[in-house]
Specification:
The structure is a single chain. Helix 5 packs across helix 6. 64% of the residues lie in helices and 0% in strands. The protein is flat and about 50 Å long. With 106 residues, it is mostly helical.
């Protein structure tokens, strides 16, 4: 992935922007074909900010998404497993309210 280079130049940042534009311009094809329902997830949204953040903060080496992946497991998968798989959203919301205080969620 272009954003993982140990060093970046204006050329590599331009290539990264081009790759992101190409992907975002064509991702609806997956929705149209029924492969995905949507692309609304934080990790993908964050990619739009990578080029500017690389300019401001430096390269992304030694960065990963483990923190958000673990939150997904804790707050989504575990909550879903606790449901009877009917009207999941309400049950998952109740499960989260019962198992996590607002301080732990933020």
């Amino acid at each position: 992935f272009a954003g993982q280079h140990p060093s970046c130049s204006h050329k590599t940042l331009h290539l990264l922007n081009d790759a992101l534009d190409l992907f975002h311009g064509n991702k609806d094809t997956f929705v149209d074909l029924g492969i995905r329902n949507n692309f609304n997830f934080p990790t993908l949204h964050a990619t739009r900010h990578y080029p500017l953040m690389i300019v401001i903060l430096g390269t992304t080496d030694n960065c990963n998404t483990e923190y958000t992946e673990q939150l997904h497991i804790d707050y989504t998968k575990d909550a879903y497993r606790a449901t009877n798989h009917k009207d999941e959203f309400v049950q998952m919301t109740r499960w989260l309210e019962r198992n996590f205080t607002p301080r732990e969620v933020c």
